[in-house]
Amino acid sequence: MIRESGEAVRGLGADEAVLVNLEAERVRLVEALRVSQLHFDESQRTAHVGSWEWEIATGSLWWSDESCRIFGIEPGTFVKTHEAFLAFVHPDDLDKVGPSMEGLMGGDLMLVDYRIVRADGEVRIVHDVGQVIRDQLGHQTRMVGTVQDVTDAAAADEERTRLVSAIEQTADSIWMQDLNNMVTYVNPAFTRAYGYPSDAIVGRHARLVDSGRHPAGFFTDVWATAAAGKTWKGSIINRRADGTEFEVAAVISGIRDASGRIVSYMQTDRDVTRERALESALERDARERGSIEGALARIDSSATPEEIAAIACSEIVGLTSVDSAFVVILDPEAGWILAAEGLNADRVSPGMPISESRLRRLQESAERGPWVDAWHPGPDDDASGQMLTSTGLHSMAYAPFLCVGELTIG
């Protein structure tokens, strides 16, 4: 062998020593190449990214082991031709691959996603990137590229697209805030409900829609619940861009990152203003009806009609939005005021007759139960009809009284 100083190793000639050193260097390089190839194969397997080369002159195609695994074949068994590669491409996606390769021959970078049919029949989606290599004279000599299985990523993208579409199309307001309650996103339904377009509220604090109707500490508790990873549900009175208030049924929860840490909040609002108003109206109606029925139940059935009518008018005037109450006798041939209470009581006295035409209309309508009419004086209502109109009366609600054994209200 030859020492570093160049001195021949004892027992070997100079030529023999050189050969020994060269063989040792070759073995070292082969081992280094083997280790490098192992690292290369392992990195490709880990990243699930394969590589390929295509010799333009010969048409020979080389695939890395991971490329073979992506296409579902054993490494080293691939027939090294472009035609063999095309046999894996889904028939409906051949029109993607062909033009991409032609563009690559023209010097363009190839970026294309297409479906393949693996050897086991499974359909997968791959992302292919290719680049032309030229010699010193600028001639195209080969193409190199990478291929990656993106089936799972494509499915996730499709799921995200469906989710975004659902959020964009839902009728509920959906908006997101960062941990400092700065608005980061609103969907179109939010704009319709609150009146704020996206660019008018994104980047601003959520207090912009605060009505100020909630007690101190209310929102502190709300956000503390969401920050703790729990879902908060309840009613919030918020304010629209035009200043009007409305009630929403809100659901607020935290959004977690991959590590499970809460990084933002999502809020879903459903406008329940009309529902709450309807519930209140129904409750009020039930309460008022119960009050009237209770009052009627307490009336002495032996009392005079005038006494019964006076008590009924007194109870009715106590109802919401009722200014005046009258009890009208509907005899077959005549009609007259029996009792009156409220705003117009001083203008309508017991015994005042009603016109014949109005008597007929009331008798016909009474057979069908309670009803409401807009007030219009009839042609034969004489001065009394004009007088009622002059008080600002605009509508009348009628509830026929029935007397069969006991006095009830229809």
Q: Rg, please?
A: 44 Å
What order do the SSEs take from the amino end to the carboxyl end, as H and E?
HEEHHHEEEHEEHHHEEEHHEEHEHEEE
> In terms of structural class, how would the helical and strand content be classed?
alpha+beta
Strand content: 25-35%
- In the CATH scheme, the class of the largest domain would be Alpha Beta
What is the CATH superfamily label of the largest domain?
Answer: GAF domain
CATH architecture of the largest domain: 2-Layer Sandwich
Description of the structure:
The longest helix is centred in the first third of the chain and has 34 residues, at 14-47. By secondary structure, the chain is an alpha+beta fold. The chain has a five-stranded antiparallel sheet, sandwiched between helices. It starts with 13 loop residues before the first helix and ends with a strand. The chain contains twelve helices and 16 strands. It has four domains: 1-47; 48-154, PAS domain (Beta-Lactamase, 2-Layer Sandwich), CATH 3.30.450; 170-271, PAS domain (Beta-Lactamase, 2-Layer Sandwich), CATH 3.30.450.20; 288-409, Beta-Lactamase (2-Layer Sandwich), CATH 3.30.450.40. The protein has helices at residues 14-47, 65-70, 82-86, 94-105, 151-169, 188-194, 198-201, 218-227, 273-297, 305-317, 356-366, 382-390; strands at residues 49-55, 61-63, 110-117, 123-134, 140-149, 173-178, 183-186, 232-239, 245-256, 262-271, 324-330, 335-342, 371-374, 395-398, 401-404, 406-409.
